[in-house]
Every structure is written in structure tokens, then in C-alpha cells.
Specification:
- The complex is a heterodimer of chains A (about 220) and B (about 375).
- With about 220 residues, chain A is mostly helical.
- Chain A has 11 helices and no strands.
- Chain A has a single domain, classed as MetI-like fold, CATH 1.10.3720.
- Chain B folds into 2 domains: about 240 residues, Rossmann fold; about 120 residues, no CATH class.
- Chain B is α+β, with helices and mostly antiparallel strands and about 375 residues long.
- Classes of the chains: A mainly alpha (about 220), B alpha+beta (about 375).
Chain lengths: ~220, ~375
């Protein structure tokens, strides 16, 4: 029998990249939402939640509009790199990031907001800048729930189907992620390949969820 | 020297009454105690000085440096105010050792200087052997010391302590008091301490600010406060005063005496200032200044013993009607025997009665 492992590796790579981007961007947004009052805060809050609620294909469509070859972002990307952004693994990363980031923002914001205010005040009165305070006090104190959220974000990135299909397409050996490969395999009657991928993905996801739960629990018992 | 004029208004919400802080204060090097009931604005004052909460208007000056000035739009962030703040629950960073906590606060110092300073403070606050421990491995008193050391490490211009004795038992409280007095000796910065324990006013303070309902009712040295609490409101807040309403029925400024009708009887009183015959006056006397008697006499009123409380240094007898008397322990057994046989009187010596303002006016 022959099982093509490429989609699985691609999925893992895409999910890793998406998680890292989500972490960087999501932590920043979460910090902003937790610590700052600014005009349009509710709007930012709503916008960052939207990907969670929208059907993935709708999300994918919007992405096509925003980063497609005829959009200015798409054109700028092509002008700089010489390749198009859509229908590449990079587009899959963008789709997965968008899929994963709402949860991460929500959990991280809650985690940052639950950090003892007095500790943060202590840090500030001891002369720490907001940057230093974040890295030395707030983040270490909120690290467990944030790590748990990052792990779940990884799981979500791993599973994205609709948005990825819309903007990265289903190009075997290039943009075909595990979720899409499973769909393809079932469609074409390749039950064996579908089963293997399903089992591997299930085990992976179960492990990830266990890890996330463990992280959450240790936080509670501390 | 710290000078502050502050107003801060919290509008009434659906579940809370409105609150307005409006204070003007000065704190010289030494201990200034902010005393008053919960919710009177003491901690809010500290938080506004430290910059955690911004005032609506006013001005805060620390050694001629402007920390806040609503007119000039100056509002330094907490990190630039150089205020050492000791929080009620210490707020040591739980994920750092004691040494790391101190190092965090000393990060602006050069490396060598930083190590020297950390070692110095660890030593001074007797926590050198705890330097490698995490806050959850420390006792309450040790956390307290670490937290004060951390607040002092960067040579702040003022030390702010928010109810530092809260939750400490009597022994630790005494330790804390000596520690604060030690600090007072060694650093020449204003130390501002919030408490609702009157004892701390008298043990620690060079100056006491009496807070009530968002304003400072009275400011005085503690000894002065005991001698003359200035107004009925201050006397009530401090507690431990018997407060009387009386009518001046005769005045003799020449002999510095007066005649008062109070407690349904007539007694000799002290010289009353700014008062005419027939005026109502408010007077106070401390429990240890009154005396228990077992036969009638001058300035004695008949009383019924309501309750007896044992206190560390004395016996407190409560005769109702604001007749609370502290008697030295050795005298009590004989008094009790005689009193139960012959009846009780309370003597209010004219010198113990002090005229105070009836309303809650501020005395400057």
C-alpha cells in the first residue's frame, strides 16, 4: 500500500507557523484589549471574534478578496516576491492563522486580565516599562493558560478545511493539507489512505487536547 | 517633602453611592499615618500619589518635582514617579525568588551597584538567607520585609504602605512597627501609612491625618490628638473617647472654670472658650481620666455598672451613657466590692473634660 505522508507534514508545518504567528499577533492584541482603552475597542474585539463565528468558506472568500491576485496586497506581494500569495502554502498558513487566532486572543486576554492587578502595579511603581512588565511579570504569570490556548490554536490550525481550500486550493504535493487530503481520499474511494490520515490526526489532536488540559489543570492546582 | 492637592470624583452607579475624594496634604520626612474608616479615601490617596489612579484635578509635588498637575497637564506614569509602594498583600512577584524580586526593582542601577544594593537590603531586612526562596515559601512577616526591601531598593522619594499590618498577628505587628520606626531613622523620606487601627497612629506617627468620607477631618501629632481630638467626629473615629453634650450654666474665665449641666446633673467644668452662658457645648474625656467612686461627691454622677471588660493593662467598666472608665487592675477588686455594696458613681474631674467642636469642622 502507499500512503502519501506529504499532506500530514504540510499540515504540521502550516499549523506550527500559524500557531507562532497567532501567538505573536494574538498576544499583542490580547494585551491591547486587556490593558488599553481606545476608540473602537469593541470593534476590534468583535472583528477578532468573527473568524470563530463565520463559516470557513465565507472567511476564505473574504481572504480571496483581500489577498487575491487582483487585490493590492496580492499585487504588492507579487511585485516584491515574484510569486502569487494565493494557492501556495503561505496562503494555507494565513487561513489557518485566521482560523486559530480568535480563541487564542480570547483566552490570552482572559489570562492577562486575571493577573493580579497589584503585581502589575508593583511592577510599574518599581520603574518597569510596559514592555518589561509584560515579559517579566504579566506573561510569566499568565503563561499556563496562554500555553494551553496556544496548544488548542495549534489543534485548530491543524484542522482547518474550508478557508484553506478556498485560498490555498487542493494542489497535491503543494497545498494539499491533511484535512483536504482526507476529503480527497474519501471522494476518490481511497479508504485506506483516508483511514490512516484520520487515525493519525485523531491521535495527534487527542494528544494536543490532553496537553492543553494538563496545562490548564496545573494552573488551577498552583 | 510631599505635597498633594487632589480631587477625584466617582459618580454614583446603580449599585454604589457616589464618592468624592477631596484632600490637601503635606507629608514631611517621618511617618504620616492616614487613619479613618474603610472607604474614606485613604488607599485612594496613596494610589493617586503613586499614579495608579489619575485624579480629576489637583497637583502632586514630590521634593519640588511635579508628579501630577491637572492645570499643566502633567501626569507622570507610575514608573517615573519614584514612589515605593508596599501593597496590602505584599504583591511580591510569585514566580521570582526574593533576590529576583529585588533585582527587578533595581534594574536601573549599574550591575555592580545593583548587586551591592541587593546584598545591602537583604542584610538590612534580615532576609539574606531567604534570598533564594519564592514568596510562597515565606511567612507573612518575611514577605512583608521582602516587600518593603523591594520598595526601598531604588531609593524612592516617598514610601507608601497600604495597611501593612493587616492580617499580621500581634507579635508580627510589633515587629513591623519596630521595622517601620527603624526605616524612619535610616531614610529621610516621607513614609505614608494607611491604617484603620488607632494604635498605629500613636505608635508610629509623627503626623496623623484623620480621614472621613473622602476628606481630611483633622491633622495633628498623635500626642496632640489624644489630648485634644478637636471635634466630636474625630473623637468618634479614633474611638476610646467619652463624648458629652452639656449646657454652660455659669462661666468664670477669671478662675478658668465653668459650671456645666450634663448627664442630668451639674458639675464643675473647664474654662470654655468662645462660649456664652446657656450655650450647648461638646466635651470629651478619655476612659483613663475618669474615676470610679463608691459614694457621692463633687463632679460625681450616679451610674449603673453595665459591663466589665478585661484589658491588658486595665479593667474597663462601662456604665452606659458614655461613661466608660479604665481602672488600673490592682485597684479593681476593692472597688468592685465597695461598689457592689454601696452603689456606683463616676467622677468626671474638671481637668479631664475638654471642649471639642461639635461639628466636623477641620482645624488647620
Amino acid at each position: 500500500m502507499h500512503v502519501d505522508w506529504f499532506p500530514l507534514w504540510l499540515s504540521l508545518e502550516v499549523a506550527t507557523a500559524a500557531t507562532l504567528i497567532s501567538l505573536a499577533l494574538g498576544l499583542w492584541l490580547a494585551w491591547l484589549l486587556a490593558n488599553r482603552d481606545f476608540p473602537g475597542k469593541n470593534f476590534v474585539d468583535a472583528i477578532t471574534t468573527l473568524p470563530l463565528a463565520l463559516p470557513p468558506t465565507v472567511l476564505g472568500y473574504y481572504l480571496l478578496v483581500v489577498i487575491g491576485r487582483s487585490s493590492w496586497i496580492g499585487r504588492a506581494w507579487e511585485a516584491v516576491t515574484g510569486t502569487s500569495l494565493v494557492f501556495t502554502w503561505r496562503a494555507a498558513v494565513i487561513a489557518s492563522t485566521l482560523h486559530a487566532i480568535p480563541l487564542l486572543i480570547k483566552s490570552s486576554r482572559a489570562a492577562l486580565e486575571s493577573v493580579d492587578v497589584a503585581c502589575e502595579r508593583a511592577g510599574r511603581s518599581l520603574g518597569a516599562s510596559e514592555w518589561r512588565l509584560f515579559w517579566r511579570v504579566s506573561l510569566p504569570l499568565a503563561r499556563r493558560p496562554i500555553a494551553a490556548a496556544a496548544v488548542l490554536a495549534f489543534a485548530r490550525s491543524l484542522g482547518d478545511f474550508g478557508a484553506t481550500l478556498m485560498i490555498a486550493g487542493d494542489i497535491p504535493g503543494r497545498t494539499q493539507t491533511a484535512a483536504i487530503a482526507i476529503f480527497d481520499a474519501v471522494e476518490s474511494g481511497n479508504t485506506l489512505a483516508a483511514r490512516v490520515l484520520v487515525i493519525v490526526i485523531s491521535i495527534l489532536t487527542a494528544a494536543v487536547v490532553l496537553l492543553a488540559n494538563g496545562l490548564e489543570k496545573r494552573r488551577v492546582s498552583r | 517633602m510631599l505635597r498633594a492637592t487632589l480631587t477625584k470624583r466617582f459618580p454614583a452607579g446603580p449599585e454604589s453611592a457616589g464618592f468624592t475624594l477631596s484632600v490637601e496634604l503635606e507629608a514631611a520626612p517621618g511617618v504620616t499615618v492616614l487613619y479613618g474608616p474603610s472607604g474614606s479615601g485613604k488607599t485612594l490617596t496613596l494610589d493617586t500619589i503613586a499614579g495608579f489612579i489619575s485624579a480629576d484635578s489637583g497637583r502632586i509635588l514630590l521634593n519640588d518635582r511635579i508628579l501630577y498637575d491637572s492645570g499643566a497637564q502633567v501626569h507622570l506614569p507610575p514608573r517615573d514617579r519614584n514612589c515605593g509602594y508596599v501593597f496590602q498583600n505584599y504583591s511580591l512577584f510569585p514566580h521570582m525568588t526574593v533576590r529576583a524580586n529585588l533585582a527587578f526593582a533595581a534594574h536601573r542601577l549599574a550591575r555592580l551597584e545593583r548587586h551591592r544594593r541587593i546584598a545591602e537590603l537583604l542584610d538590612r531586612f534580615r532576609i539574606a538567607d531567604l534570598a533564594g526562596r519564592y514568596p510562597h515559601e515565606l511567612s507573612g512577616g518575611q514577605k512583608q520585609r521582602a516587600s518593603i526591601a523591594r520598595a526601598l531598593i531604588a531609593d524612592p522619594g516617598v514610601l507608601l504602605l497600604d495597611e501593612p499590618a493587616n492580617g499580621l498577628d500581634a507579635t508580627l505587628r510589633d515587629d513591623l512597627h519596630s521595622l517601620i520606626l527603624e526605616i524612619r531613622q535610616s531614610v529621610t523620606i516621607p513614609i505614608m501609612l494607611v491604617t484603620h487601627n488607632p494604635e498605629e497612629c500613636f505608635v508610629l506617627a509623627d503626623q496623623v491625618l484623620i480621614y472621613d468620607g473622602g476628606t481630611i477631618l483633622h491633622r495633628a501629632a498623635p500626642a496632640e490628638l489624644l489630648r485634644n481630638p478637636a471635634s466630636a467626629a474625630v473623637a468618634r473615629l479614633l474611638g476610646g473617647f467619652n463624648i458629652y453634650e452639656a449646657e454652660a450654666i455659669a462661666l468664670d474665665p477669671g478662675r478658668q472654670t465653668s459650671r456645666l449641666r450634663m448627664l442630668d446633673t451639674e458639675i464643675d467644668g473647664p474654662n470654655l472658650r468662645g462660649c456664652f452662658r446657656g450655650d450647648r457645648v461638646t466635651l470629651c474625656a478619655r476612659p483613663e481620666e475618669l474615676r470610679i467612686a463608691t459614694r457621692p461627691g463633687a463632679n460625681r454622677v450616679r451610674a449603673d455598672l453595665v459591663r466589665v471588660t478585661e484589658r491588658p493593662q486595665s479593667i474597663r467598666a462601662d456604665f452606659g451613657k458614655d461613661l466608660i472608665v479604665d481602672t488600673p487592675r490592682p485597684e479593681w477588686p476593692a472597688l468592685r466590692e465597695a461598689g457592689e455594696r454601696d452603689g456606683w458613681w463616676v467622677e468626671l474631674p474638671a481637668s479631664s473634660l475638654r471642649q471639642i467642636a461639635r461639628s466636623s469642622s477641620t482645624s488647620e
